[in-house]
Amino acid sequence: MNRRRNQSRTPAFIIAALILAAVTVAGGGVYYAYLKNRQVQASRDIDKIERDIEQYRLDTRTTQMRMDELLNRFVIRTQLSENGSELIAISSEILEEVNPSPADPRAVASAAP
Fold it and tell me: How far apart are CA 18 and CA 10, in angstroms?
């Protein structure tokens, strides 16, 4: 369709404003995608840390169980006898309870044995 010569053209600042609006909308979309990606990454990091914490708790419980097994006096007695140790069991009547003397709270070191 032909235009008449006396018909006004679209001003350049309107075209520039439309281009600026399009660039702004495109930039906002890119920035939104960037922020959403960061949010997903942070969520993955939190999940990984929670899994690591749970694994450390499990490892701690396993280590505690193994320590309890190793410190069982019946197991220690059996191991000592298997290794041919010269240690012998003593009766509870021979045991003597010793109460340490209270130290002076201001003292840095105590000379008492």
Answer: 12
Q: What is the 3-state secondary structure (H, E, C) of 42-90?
A: HHHHHHHHHHHHHHHHHHHHHHHHHHHHHCCHHHHHHHHHHCCCCCCCC
What single-letter amino acid sits at 4? R
C-beta separation of 72 from 79 below 8 A: no
Burial class (CB in 10 A: 0-12, 13-18, 19+), 80: middle
* 77 touches 89 (CB < 8 A): yes
Using the structure block, give the residue that is written with the tokens 């997903």. Answer: 40
Tell me how far apart the alpha carbons of residues 96 and 19 are, in angstroms, rounded to a whole number: 94
pTM over 0.70: no
Q: 47-83: per-residue pLDDT in tens?
A: 999 999 999 999 999 999 999 988 888 888 888 889 9
Of the candidates 62, 43, 63, which has an alpha carbon nearest to the alpha carbon of residue 51? 43
